[in-house]
Amino acid sequence: MLNDNRIRIITGHYGSGKTEFAVNYAVKLNKEKENVALVDLDVVNPYFRSREKSNDLSKLGIKVIGSSIKGMGADVPAIAGEVLGPIQDESFETILDVGGDPIGARALGRYNKYFKDGKYDMLFVINANRPETQTVDKAIEYLKNIELQARAKVTGLVNNTHLLKSTTKEEILKGQKIVKEVSKKLNLPIRYVVALEDVAKELPKDIEGEIFPIKMYMREDWMY
Amino acid sequence: MAKVLMKGNEAIGAAAIKAGCHYFFGYPITPQNEIPEYMSRELPKVDGVFLQAESEVAAINMVYGAAGAGARVMTSSSSPGIALKQEGISYIAGAELPCVIVNIVRGGPGLGGIQPAQSDYYQATRGGGNGDYRHIVYAPSTLQETVDLVMESFDVAEQYRIPVMVVGDGMIGQMMEPVEFKKPKERPLAEKTWATTGTKGKRKPNIINSLFIDPQELEDHVHKLERKHEEIKKNETRFEEYNVEDADVVCVAYGTTSRIVKNAIKKCEEDGLKVGLIRPITLWPFPESAFDKITDKTKGLLAVEMSTGQMIDDVKIAIKGKKPVYFHGRTGGMVPNPTDIENEIRKIAGGEK
Q: Coil, strand or helix: which one is A188?
């Protein structure tokens, strides 16, 4: 994680778990580095956006930037001007949580000139249990379309194959197979393999990519 | 079939198509937009028709037409959009046509907000349309149940020739959960001899209509509908119950709220309280018989809703004045939290209320 470039862009098919990954990433990075900013660029989803957790994250010292419109009930694609701050200011360690699908990635286009090779990483999150990214070809098609809209290249893959709390090691390994194929075909590294803390312990240590144990911040306790 | 992870709205679309629904007419509104989005992408693949109408009023009348022609058809919207569809729903009920209507409820009144709510209970169970009509209302609490009920809704609608509404609060539409698609149980579905499919010169034209010029004919028609409603009450009422007998307190909640209540109940049980739950799965017909199990030991009932208490009337009717009915709710898009519910339960159990 410390080897990732200063600007980390999290993209993927909607529902792949980008936001959960982004929030966990921010919390972890915040333990290692100063000045962590999480930018919520989601203009697709009306619910479960990282800005909903801005109070908790702010307490940890993470700067969260959401919509310029106050109130959770806005389904207006309004992005705050202050988003530019942590993108331009090199003293920030910046995470961009982007809305799902090519449509969500369109919001990135406006910041394109800041995404210079070696200065940013764009991670593509894959959940092989999502119907639209269950096969290698479909996942690649999504990835390509997102690159097109974002006008930036993906630099790494994240295997986030899960079925929420009922995720088993086998589910993750099944996803890993697909992510590996995508990795080979596109010559992109698998950067992270995401798993709930308990399941993460069971994963083979030599798995390709860094094992990334997470907590579920976005899902309320009562949802189980 | 293996489970896939889906967003509620997508899963509703997928379930409908799996149930043979090839026609969808709607108009976008948050928080249900992923349904039309999904249908617009997937229906052409099965030679179906997705049409974004110019308004909700137009959409429901397209449903009326398609249902009249015997098609499996669905529309979806969210609260204010469903309000606009009420006239059409009354016509469809009057003309005895099957269709499925999905309401992913948001806060109201008026445009309200986009966060989850259950404040369309009156609208769904009493109806905003005119006349002596009813329609079935399902209120699932998980995405698996949503998928199952959507699939079954088409069969139920055809069996009774009646509109079926599936009501989910915004959470049901927006949350993600693993689902699988299973065929619903077989039902006796008659051939649609009433549908306007063309006479081919071999029969008299079928007429789809809700207009009756002769009052006696209309009364007879309404009585026929009423007999059908009684039949539905008898056969299709559904609920889940948990520890109702001899409970200190019995909670009544549906949809995602019932899941929050279950968490509160667990906490109370840790301290030795016995707390029951009645979860209506059909809001109409309301599961009145579930309340017969409540005994003298119970101190009171607690209705929990994401509204200011629209279900209370039905709970009071069902308990027949034998027990006090209390209420806890959040509204406007706010979601109740388990601790507040737990406190309410404790107050009733401890005689504070």
A: coil
